[in-house]
Design goal:
This protein has 574 residues and is of the alpha+beta class. Helices cover 20% and strands 39% of the residues. Helix 4 packs antiparallel against helix 7, helix 5 runs antiparallel to helix 6 and helix 6 packs antiparallel against helix 7.
């Protein structure tokens, strides 16, 4: 069995390691004990109360129980003991108080309560005078202990002298000169020559001008790392690490951080104590990033890829365009996807996905934007090489990563039914990712090609059938300035009621909303800027988004809201 006791003066490094590194991994059951070192003492004596919790899931603090005829004159002093037997670790924490009787008579330490555990009250008899023997005095004619304490020998201390504890706290940056958006690791560490029972920030450290991410505490030896500071030997224990990204250029200060450090007791009559130590302030020189068209501020090493979930899609169905950036750096800063517009296709706003982890080199992983692309004509939709610019600290310059060009082949009729006419050839993507997307024009070839196109168009018109006929009738009514017939309005409202039902999928519901709007309003020309036309076009856009959006969540509420707004428009204007 190996035992590490933070209250022991023989193993200061091991004691701190138990505090910092061996916390229980999971919550669980614990036991609670309350003990005194004597139940009959004199009024001039002192009694020691020890409250111990053992096992995982124990609370960090145990409240002091009610005291009768007793005063606290010392403590609480905390110590932790970790035992490892056959590879299994158990941990206990003790809170020790020194109590002084007030008067002769009965005294009591009240019951202790922690979570669902309780320890019973302890009665104590107080008598006159003192009944405890005085502590033995050490006789050391040579002024030193021939069986000296190894820990004291290492640091040159002698028994019998109340040497001030030597403790330092450090804020250690991995570097002090870097660019905006580059990461630095800031480590807070304790350098000690004595045992420590507790360690905490007096106030939370401040990092103005930095984006801050937490890092896991590094795995170190239980006895710490041997370091020399100003010619003296210490044991160093990392306390906390932060990953900092400067957000602006200039000299950025990291203010001093103050720690409250509880000292472990070196014996029964040693009260331990609490001291404060502060780190030195750190100053970081931050250089600005160069400027370039299309540069969004990404810093690190990245690569960009683009892909389609299919190469061939029937006219009227959707394809998924994925744009992915992966690597290591300030990846969380890349929070907006590109604005993409393709000739011959409608592109819906993207859904963003992230797979990120924090490392000492920065934020690593990937960010992906998924665009739903709905072709509006048969033929091909060209997705050219997409460019993503970032600053490479190793190269010291802005680098452009490009994706491979993609082609989506669209099979079926010539124009998708129910969708607006495609934009003119030559439309380009907007934003920082330029796309070229001219559709290949169909040449005026021989008769077989025209015959095939004619047959495909006739098949599509036959497939549209009843829905297309009702839509044309509604369009005719609107062009003539006549309102929809009561029968058409009732049919539209029935479709909208079905769309809001629980059984329809989002695709079926969106199709019903489109059908109802066309039944009630027919075609709404783009040049019509009236209130009714704008409202109907907005509803159709929402319906198409729901219809073709990827199934990344629950759309029930959105479908119901869409159907309700469409029904309100039908009642108001149809």
């Amino acid at each position: 069995m190996r035992t590490v006791d933070r209250g022991s003066r023989w193993a200061p490094g091991t004691a701190l390691a138990a505090l910092l590194l061996l916390a229980p991994a999971v919550a669980g059951a614990f036991t609670l004990r309350s003990e005194v070192d004597a139940r009959r003492v004199g009024v001039q004596d002192q009694v020691q109360l020890t409250i111990t919790v053992e096992g995982s899931g124990a609370p960090d603090e145990i409240p002091l129980p009610a005291l009768k005829n007793l005063d606290v004159v010392g403590g609480p002093f905390q110590s932790t003991q970790v035992s490892i037997v056959n590879g299994r670790m158990t941990q206990s924490r003790s809170f020790t108080y020194v109590l002084q009787p007030r008067a002769v008579g009965s005294a009591e330490v009240g019951a202790v309560q922690a979570g669902d555990q309780a320890a019973p009250a302890i009665p104590i008899e107080i008598v006159a005078g003192s009944v405890r023997p005085p502590p033995p005095r050490r006789q050391d004619p040579f002024g030193t202990d021939p069986f000296g304490d190894p820990f004291e020998e290492v640091f040159g201390r002698r028994r019998g002298r109340a040497a001030a504890p030597k403790l330092l706290v450090q804020a250690i940056p991995s570097r002090t000169r870097l660019r905006v958006g580059e990461p630095l690791v800031l480590t807070y560490a304790l350098d000690t020559q004595t045992s420590v029972a507790d360690l905490q920030f007096k106030e939370a450290p401040q990092f103005a001008g930095f984006w801050v991410e937490d890092l896991e505490r590094p795995q170190t030896s239980p006895s710490g790392e041997a370091v020399t500071v100003d010619g003296e030997a210490y044991r160093r224990f990392p306390v906390m690490r932060k990953l900092l990204f400067p957000t602006k250029a200039g000299t950025l200060p990291i203010p001093a951080a103050t720690f409250r450090i509880g000292l472990a007791r070196q014996g029964f009559f040693d009260t331990g104590g609490v001291v404060e130590r502060a780190t030195k302030a750190v100053r970081v020189a931050v250089e600005p990033l160069p400027e370039a068209p299309g540069f969004s501020g990404a810093v690190g090493r990245f690569r960009a890829t683009a892909s389609l979930d299919r190469d061939v899609v029937p006219l009227g169905e959707a394809a998924m365009l994925r744009f992915r950036v992966e690597g290591s750096g300030n990846l969380k800063w890349i929070d907006r996807g590109p604005e993409v517009a393709l000739a011959g296709a409608r592109v819906f706003p993207p859904q963003a996905k992230s797979d990120l982890r924090t490392t000492t080199e920065g934020i690593a992983g990937s960010r992906t934007w998924e665009f739903v692309v709905v072709p509006e004509t048969s033929g091909t939709v060209e997705v050219p090489a997409l460019s993503f610019s970032y600053f490479d600290p190793g190269a010291g310059r802005i680098v452009a990563a490009e994706t491979a060009p993609l082609t989506l082949r669209v099979e079926g009729g010539t124009v998708a039914v129910g969708l607006p006419a495609p934009p003119k050839a030559g439309a380009r993507a907007t934003g920082t990712l330029p796309l070229r997307s001219d559709l290949d024009p169909h040449g005026g070839g021989a008769l077989p090609g025209r015959t095939v196109a004619l047959l495909a168009s006739l098949a599509l018109l036959l497939h549209a059938g009843i829905w297309g006929a009702s839509r044309l009738r509604g369009a005719s009514r609107r062009r003539e300035g006549r309102a929809a017939s009561p029968r058409s309005v009732r049919a539209a409202l029935r479709d909208l009621e079905r769309a809001a039902g629980e059984t329809a999928s989002k695709e079926q519901a969106a199709s019903l909303v489109e059908k109802a709007l066309h039944e009630a309003f027919g075609d709404v020309p783009d040049e019509d800027e009236g209130e009714r036309a704008r409202a109907v076009r907005a509803l159709l856009d929402d319906a198409r988004f729901v219809r073709y959006a990827p199934q990344l969540g629950e759309y029930g509420d959105k479908v119901k809201d869409l159907a309700a707004r469409a029904a309100e428009a039908v009642r108001k204007w149809a």
